[in-house]
Amino acid sequence: MTRLLSLLLFFLIAFADSAALAEGPPSYYLMRHLESRGVGHDERLSETGAMNAQRLAGRFKADPPGAIYVSATQVSLDTSAWLATELGINPKLYDPQKLDALVETLTAERAPVLIVGHDSVIAQLLAKLTGRPSPPPQDIAVGKVWVIKGPAKQVTISDLYPPER
User: Fold this and answer.
1) Phi and psi torsions of 78, nearest 5°
2) Chain centroid to CA 131: how far?
3) Helix or strand or coil: residue 141?
4) What is the helix (H) or strand (E) element at residue 114, kind and residue range?
5) What is the DSSP-derived secondary structure letter of residue 163?
6) pTM over 0.70
7) Cβ distance 78 to 37 under 8 Å?
8) Are 18 and 44 in contact (CB under 8 A)?
9) How many CB atoms lie within 10 A of CB 2?
10) Domains in the chain, please, with CATH?
11) Which residues are paired to 50 by β-bridges?
12) What is the pLDDT of residues 27-67, one digit of tens each?
């Protein structure tokens, strides 16, 4: 019940002021690493995850990130590798234990930024970057991109995958 209330509160606050949504590109994209096989620091993308990583460039075609920040876990590195190559960007590593330092670095970036990491890290970053309550980590689903846009820090969630027909 607490998880549901926390998620509901996050969405109510995030979407409360749609009129304040600024024009222009997103400030931040946050996403959990794609589908993986195995568990732990050295887990790799599954076949599905690797195919979806190759599709990321199409997802970010309209407003590509100018920088990519990624945790040093192999699955996060694998998730960002195709997109980084396609865009000619060298991903920047961040320490998930030092998220305040990462937020300070992110605020200095001028172009949209993509941050890739594990669910708990993405949940914490959403709270730090928006000043709003964090969704529960289990709600940071594979295949979802959390978009923070404009001075109002409007949050939307987009899907990497087309809906099933």
Assistant:
1) -60, -40
2) 16
3) coil
4) strand 113-117
5) P
6) yes
7) no
8) no
9) 7
10) 2-159 (3.40.50.1240)
11) none
12) 999 999 999 987 766 789 999 999 999 988 888 888 899 99
Place of tokens 């109510």: 12
pLDDT exceeds cutoff 90 at 20? no
Give Cα 91 distance to the centre of its chain: 14
Residues 6+ apart with CB under 8 A from 74: 41, 42, 43, 44
81 vs 4 pLDDT, higher one? 81
CB 134 within 8 A of CB 126: yes
Nearest to 36 by CA among 119, 124, 142: 142
**Residue (of 78, 76, 69) closest to 98 by Cα position:** 69
DSSP string for residues in 22-36: PSSS-SEEEEE---E
Please report the pLDDT score of residue 163 as a whole number.
Answer: 65
pLDDT digits (tens, 9 = 90+) for 74-129: 999 999 999 999 999 999 999 999 999 999 999 899 889 999 999 999 999 999 99
Q: Tell me the sheet residues that pair with 113.
A: 28, 67
Contacts of 116 (CB under 8 A, 6+ apart): 31, 32, 33, 68, 69, 70, 71, 76, 79, 80
